[in-house]
Design brief:
Helices cover about 0% and strands about 50% of the residues. With about 120 residues, the chain is mainly beta. Strands 2, 4, 5, 6, 9, 10 and 11 form a seven-stranded mixed β-sheet that branches.
Length: about 120
């Protein structure tokens, strides 16, 4: 069993920054790609960013490319999402998830464990 806990969400003004963290339990974390997704009210969960198990490869959704950065520290079992130049349309619940594979993953169905989510609200 893998347990994921997100933190770092909050309310910020447009143009501001937030850094989300996701801490995982279990050794399996280190062999798996990890990802961040988000879900706004009334919308489907959408892919945000993913990082390979080694941290050597990342992939982003076009909507966040150049503004968000995903990273990981396997020694701390933690994945981060640095979010800069935030926009009101970034408002959503952000979820951390573990991919079933070691390569980068961008599809919901490739993820087998999910955190409970952290709310990010961007005011205009």
């Amino acid at each position: 069993q893998v347990h994921l806990v997100e933190s770092g969400g909050g309310l910020v003004q447009a143009g501001g920054s937030l850094r989300l963290s996701c801490t995982a339990s279990g050794r399996a974390f280190r062999n798996n790609a990890m990802g961040w997704f988000r879900q706004a009210p009334g919308k489907e969960r959408e892919f945000v960013a993913t990082i390979r198990w080694s941290g050597g490869s990342t992939y982003y959704a076009d909507l966040v490319k150049g503004r968000f950065t995903i990273s990981r520290d396997n020694a701390k079992n933690t994945v981060y999402l640095q979010m800069n130049t935030l926009k009101p349309e970034d408002t959503a619940v952000y979820y951390c998830a573990r991919c079933s594979y070691s390569r980068v993953c961008s599809v919901v169905g490739e993820y087998d464990y999910w955190g409970q989510g952290t709310q990010v609200t961007i005011s205009s």
